[in-house]
Amino acid sequence: MERRELLKMIAVLTGTAMIGGDLLLSGCGQSPTIGGTAFSTDDIRFLDEVAETILPKTKTPGAKDAAVGQFMTVMVNDTYTKDDQKIFHEGIGKLNDASKEQYKKAFLDITPEQRHELLNKLNKEAIEYNEKKSKADKESKDKKMPAHYFTMMKQLTILGFFTSEPGATQVLRHVAVPGKYDGCLDYKKGDRAWG
Questions:
Q1: 173: which strand partners?
Q2: At what angle do helices 149-162 and 82-103 cross, to 10 degrees?
Q3: Per-residue pLDDT reduced to its tens digit, 70-105
Q4: The whole model's pTM is what?
Q5: Would you state the pLDDT for residue 177?
Q6: For residues 24 and 29, what is the distance between their CA atoms, to the nearest angstrom?
Q7: Integer distance in angstroms from the first to the last C-alpha of the chain?
């Protein structure tokens, strides 16, 4: 799967353009010393659990199997602007606070069902926010609304998982060395997409 196609797929799934996608397409990375706070091992564990709730392990690997939490930290440090980094870091706290408000426990202490319920609620909030953002951004060419932190987490989860070895080889169909082009393959119900 090409980077452009993956970024388009992520935009469709999350309802907004990929944050930091311009740097992914250009192939140039910013210095990891952009700014923002450093990620701790607890932050990485937290992000792994958020990602695993979004893409859980079933018959196929989950987000934790692909070390998506670590991937998120690299992407935020290397491709996000200072403002987006700040939103992402604050988002970790906001997500944990939402868990404490709804369940009286930190996100890592609630059940998988409660995590799923909370992230569904945040996803709906992010979709509504992104619709407002899209309208506001069209009206004002000068000042753009910031991205929603959960949209960032969801996008990085999808990108990190499907570009990882487990995601690309065990979930998507993978041909290490492609053979001839065959544009007329039969589709069988349940077939996986090509990686």
A1: 194
A2: 100
A3: 999 999 999 999 999 999 999 999 999 999 999 999
A4: 0.71
A5: 67
A6: 8
A7: 5
How far apart are the C-alpha atoms of 151 and 130, rounded to whole Å? 9
Task: Check: CB of residue 173 under 8 Å from CB of residue 194.
Answer: yes
Question: Could you state, in order of their start, the residue ranges of all structural domains in the chain?
Answer: 3-24+39-171
Cα separation, 188 vs 122, in Å, equals 35
Residue 173: strand, helix, or coil: strand
- Please tell me whether residue 188 adopts helix, strand or coil conformation: coil
d(CA 124, CA 130): 10
- The residue whose two tokens read 């407002």 is 132
Q: Are 63 and 155 in contact (CB under 8 A)?
A: no
Diameter of the chain by CA atoms? 57
- What is the Cα Rg of the chain in Å? 18
Q: How far apart are CA 21 and CA 108, in angstroms?
A: 29
Q: What percent of the chain lies above the pLDDT cut of 70? A: 76
195, 1 Cβ separation under 8 angstroms: yes
What is the C-alpha to C-alpha distance for residues 103 and 98, in angstroms, rounded to an integer? 8
Write the DSSP string, 56-123.
Answer: --SSS--TGGGTHHHHHHHHHHHHS-HHHHHHHHHHHHHHHHHHHHHHSS-GGGS-HHHHHHHHHHHH
The CA distance from 13 to 158, in Å, is: 9
